[in-house]
Specification:
Layout: E1 6-11, H1 16-28, E2 34-41, H2 46-49, H3 55-79, E3 84-91, H4 95-106, E4 110-115, H5 128-136, E5 142-146, E6 156-161, H6 169-181, E7 185-191, H7 199-211, E8 217-222, H8 228-238, E9 243-248, H9 253-259, H10 261-266, E10 274-278
Parallel strand pairs: 1-2, 1-4, 2-3, 4-5, 6-7, 6-9, 7-8, 9-10
Antiparallel strand pairs: 5-10
Helix pairs in contact: 1-3
Length: 279
Amino acid sequence: MKTNNKHILLPTDFSDNSWSAIVYTLKLYANENCTFYILNSAYPSVSSISDKYSKVFKDAEEKAKKDLLEIRALAEATDANANHEFQVILSLENLNWAIEKAIDKHKIDLVALGTKGATGAKEFFFGSNTVRIIKKIRSCPVLIIPEDYDFVTPKQIAFPTDFNRLYGAEELKPLKYLASLFNSKIQIVHINKEDELDSVQKRNLSLLKSHLDTFKHSLHLVSHYSNKATEIKKFIEELDIDILVMVNYEHSVIEQIFNEPVIKKIGFNPTIPFLVIPG
């Protein structure tokens, strides 16, 4: 086992979208020691659950095994990094349970998956399955890569916060690790109805800055906005942000975004990779 080895879970449904997410993740961690676990959930459909061991189900299971080995071979051929290892996991449980079991068994540091954009929608969209995974996984970060997203060196990282909560050192580790990979600048964006920070927010800002004192970072204040999702989208475009990072906890910015009426209606999906850190 390599020292400082990262364990990264790559769920796949064998689509072009999930393959694109795998390629992005391999490039993001190109210079790191990593074991990648490629996971497929061959969970039976409702019609086959009653006859779980029927020939139809067994054939589907065998095909999934074959496809997983092909994906691994393709990943090894595409990657060819001596510091990367690949393993495959075939699960017969639903995707959420399969991911949680793999996280626990293999000490996963990150789950990376793709998500399809909205068909015909003008705004952002997260597939319902992706949202479920974000809400369900509380033990490690989740990296979501948009459909057909080509790798761009992440020099600019956006970190939206309302400063209503203190971030601990453990919560900020994934953000700092990500920034360290490419000497990225962390752009802190504060989205708030008020123009000024109150005393609690000022204290939390000061502590956040102390956590990030060895990293390039800057602060941007956004007030009098229409909705948070729109402001984050504008911020991404104006500052050429390469990755969006948020901490997910009760009443967090990301939770507020998911609960905004417009988001409930049309969804939320940044056009850049999105790292969700459990709080």
